[in-house]
Design goal:
- It is a single chain.
- The chain is mainly alpha-helical.
- Strands 1-2-3 form a 3-stranded antiparallel beta sheet, with no helix packed on it.
- Helix 2 packs across helix 3.
- The N and C termini lie far apart (186 Å).
Length: 263
């Protein structure tokens, strides 16, 4: 190899034998000889049959069809579930639930003139009893005079205060029932959906006042004053009648001991 410049050391084709390769030391050829490296054959591409490319079918979106609401759609389709709404007054509550009590607007009156008349009527019916001279009637009944015999035959009906207490009690009883009906109607006009039935006044005016106050309080948050007043008056009247009767009986016993002294 004499091309005017030294080649680097390595195996090169032998200039004297094309089937071998000789070692070049960078300055001259040496005696080292080796077979030439085989040349790898170039792989030939095998022709293949042409295949038509697979083309995916185009996806076509379906035409939009607007929904049609049937004319026979049930009315409950747009209504909220039963459990989502509170039952109105007069409707049954859900299973296991409690029907809500309707409330009246804030500031709605809770008293009427009729309820206070009902509270006052028992006092008016008992007052004539304290003016009846029950002690004199008993004392005259125990005497043996002719005048007392007439009074004994007539009984207490000869005393106008007894008559006033007896017939006045029935009149006030009827008035209390009538006033209870008027009170219930007045509460309806004020917007109270629930009302204690006025017919309870037939049993007792106190029963109606207590029941009416409880029902009104549940809807307005107040209205217990008539009930408290009626209970207080009932207690006072009961104590008053007991004291009156005890005083009369003590007087009668004292008189009888004077009329019939012990022998």
């Amino acid at each position: 190899m004499s091309d005017g410049r030294a080649a680097s050391a390595g195996w090169y084709p032998d200039p004297s034998d094309a089937s071998a390769q000789r070692w070049w030391d960078g300055a001259q050829w040496t005696e080292h000889v080796a077979p030439a490296a085989p040349v790898a054959p170039v792989a030939q591409a095998v022709p293949q049959a042409s295949v038509a490319p697979v083309v995916a079918p185009a996806v076509v979106a379906p035409a939009y069809v607007p929904p049609v609401t049937p004319a026979y759609a049930p009315a409950y389709a747009s209504a909220p579930p039963y459990a989502a709404t509170a039952p109105a007054y007069g409707q049954p509550a859900p299973y296991g639930g409690v029907a809500a009590t309707a409330r009246v607007p804030e500031g709605t009156p809770v008293d009427t003139i009729w309820i206070w008349l009902i509270v006052a009527l028992p006092v008016l019916s008992v007052l004539p009893l304290f003016f009846w001279d029950f002690q004199s009637y008993l004392e005259q009944s125990m005497s043996m005079s002719s005048s007392s015999t007439v009074l004994t035959a007539l009984g207490p009906y000869a005393d106008p205060w007894y008559l006033a207490a007896t017939f006045g009690g029935w009149i006030f009883y009827g008035l209390s029932v009538w006033f209870a009906a008027l009170d219930s109607a007045a509460l309806a006009r004020l917007g109270y959906q629930r009302r204690f039935h006025w017919a309870w006044a037939f049993l007792s005016s106190l029963v109606y006042v207590i029941g009416r106050s409880v029902v009104v309080r549940r809807q307005a948050g107040r209205g217990s004053l008539p009930m408290a007043a009626a209970i207080a008056l009932t207690v006072v009247l009961t104590i008053g009648v007991i004291v009156w009767f005890v005083v009369v009986m003590v007087g009668v016993i004292g008189t009888s001991m004077e009329m019939y002294p012990a022998y």
